[in-house]
Q: What sequence folds into this?
């Protein structure tokens, strides 16, 4: 088992428009990218479970070969910067991904 | 538009958001030595939240310094300077403020006369209501329901997001400096490239690649200069900080940044299709990109943005160190919330409790449900229609932690540590316009103007 933190080169989250947050997991080479994809640890369903959201909150899930990347996007409950939001840029939402174990 | 007789065009950019922090001058001047054809910068975006558009204020504290660096360097070389989304939001006030700063700087530095082109992008509410009454649909983006008259009325200000069109018009009129209202991040670069006759797909893709300046390169560094070079066959991206490189990984990674999908970028007039893009290493520090496609839109739809006010806002800070209080933080929040409801039964207010040390950042997305922290911070955020009520409610909610009656607490002098006075924050706003509107002419909402500056 390897932690995603040790396998991926970039793990980030950021606003994609005012009502969505997009997550990028970028691997340093095709081998580690393929390994992560083959492991099923980062499927749409597993990610939804990690963040405790229904699949309907995930607007996009794409694997992007040119960047060796997995990308998914979720809807916010209220738009960015609404009262009660403490991550206007959505740039700290990726935290839980670092601890995901990749077999 | 005249076909370019030149083989390539270089666009320099040193910041992804003008004014938040200064561009680093060393790489900027190195870039200027490479003789770019344009200097561009993004003045803003919707990213900093709805308060700036709602209140019509500028976020950055370094706007004047940045414009001074860009204006003096570009005028010295006699090349155009293009600034997108002036004043963060591209409001009319933001555009006028930036034009005023440019004129002041021109005087101050004794710059020979030059022409400023600028355009506005605010949309009158009546214009939108006429569209609705004519049966046109103002379609919600990113999960927003379609726009209603009530939401139009409650927005303090609505702006439209321009395509390349006003840039082309102002360059045709001979602008040396362009100060844009709100525009798509890719268009203040794509406009100049298209104006000089380079292919649309590459022009838009270059706009996408360089919009955040050095974030396209590695290792991670903000506010450093890069140059995008467009030819009739490719685009190339080169960083000017000596320690940065553009690699296949860094440019491919950046091409999917800040968008819900890595393959498409929509803007007024069409969609950039990056499905068949190829990313290659050109030389040690430069990446080469080819293969973008441009799909013109069948129907012209412009994006609009707007925010409505929720209320005046205060914040208070509470510290919990008693392990029993840490374990019972939810009970303490409930105590405070209930006490406010009882004390202010007829008031309209909103109250939020941010529990740092548990889920202050992620809220409902946080998988860690039980904190191992030995102390917690609770930030109480309270909003109400007027300042006095917002302060009173927020302060009361904070005091209720101190007075919380949680069974089993041994400390009888106070159940929570509190700070000084509850603090005034910005008013609270919420994005309520995030829609598209059908238009007949891509210039329809973007009146252009010319003025002069310098001596």
A:
């Amino acid at each position: 088992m390897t932690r995603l933190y040790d396998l991926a080169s970039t793990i980030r989250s950021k606003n994609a428009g005012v009502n969505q947050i997009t997550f990028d997991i970028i691997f340093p080479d095709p081998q580690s990218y393929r390994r992560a994809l083959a492991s099923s640890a980062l499927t749409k369903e597993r990610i939804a479970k990690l963040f405790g959201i229904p699949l309907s909150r995930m607007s996009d899930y794409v694997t992007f070969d040119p960047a060796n990347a997995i990308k998914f996007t979720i809807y916010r409950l209220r738009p960015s910067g609404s009262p009660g939001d403490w991550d206007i840029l959505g740039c700290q939402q990726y935290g839980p991904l670092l601890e995901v174990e990749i077999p | 538009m005249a076909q370019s007789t030149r083989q390539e065009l270089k666009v320099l950019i040193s910041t992804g958001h003008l004014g938040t922090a200064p561009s680093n001058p060393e790489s900027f001047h190195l870039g200027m030595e490479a003789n770019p054809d344009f200097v561009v910068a993004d003045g803003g975006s919707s990213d900093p939240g709805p308060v700036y558009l709602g209140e019509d204020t500028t976020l950055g504290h370094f706007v004047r310094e940045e414009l001074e660096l860009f204006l003096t360097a570009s005028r010295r070389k006699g090349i155009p300077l293009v600034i997108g989304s002036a004043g963060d939001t591209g409001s009319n006030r933001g555009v006028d403020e930036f034009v005023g700063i440019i004129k002041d700087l021109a005087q101050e530095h004794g710059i020979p006369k030059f022409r400023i082109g600028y355009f506005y992008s605010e949309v009158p509410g009546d214009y939108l209501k006429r569209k609705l009454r004519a049966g046109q649909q103002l379609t919600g983006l990113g999960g927003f329901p379609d726009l209603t008259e009530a939401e139009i009325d409650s927005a303090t200000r609505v702006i439209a997001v321009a395509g390349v069109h006003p840039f082309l018009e102002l360059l045709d009129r001979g602008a040396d400096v362009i100060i844009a209202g709100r525009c798509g991040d890719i268009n203040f670069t794509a406009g100049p490239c298209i104006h000089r006759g380079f292919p649309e797909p590459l022009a838009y893709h270059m706009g996408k690649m360089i919009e955040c300046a050095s974030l396209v390169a590695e290792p991670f560094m903000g506010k450093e200069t890069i140059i995008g070079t467009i030819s009739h066959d490719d685009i190339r991206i080169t960083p000017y900080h000596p320690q940065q490189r553009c690699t296949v990984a860094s440019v491919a990674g950046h091409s999917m940044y800040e968008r819900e999908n890595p393959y498409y970028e929509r803007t007024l007039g069409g969609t950039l299709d990056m499905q068949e893009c190829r990313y290659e290493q050109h030389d040690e520090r430069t990446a080469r990109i080819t293969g973008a496609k441009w799909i013109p839109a069948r129907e012209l739809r412009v994006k609009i943005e707007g925010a409505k006010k929720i209320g005046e806002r205060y914040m208070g800070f509470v510290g919990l160190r008693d392990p029993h209080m840490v374990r019972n933080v939810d009970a303490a929040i409930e105590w405070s919330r209930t006490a406010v409801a009882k004390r202010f039964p007829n008031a309209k207010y909103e109250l939020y409790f941010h529990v740092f040390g548990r889920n202050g950042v992620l809220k409902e997305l946080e998988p860690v449900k039980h904190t191992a922290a030995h102390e917690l911070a609770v930030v109480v955020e309270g909003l109400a229609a007027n300042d006095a009520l917002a302060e009173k409610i927020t302060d009361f909610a904070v005091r209720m932690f101190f007075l919380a009656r949680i069974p089993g607490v041994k400390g009888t002098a106070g159940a929570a540590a509190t700070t000084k006075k509850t603090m005034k924050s910005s008013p609270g706003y919420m994005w309520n316009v995030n829609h598209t509107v059908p238009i007949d002419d891509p210039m329809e909402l973007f009146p252009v103007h010319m003025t002069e500056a310098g001596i």
Notes: The two ends of chain B are 31 Å apart (CA to CA).
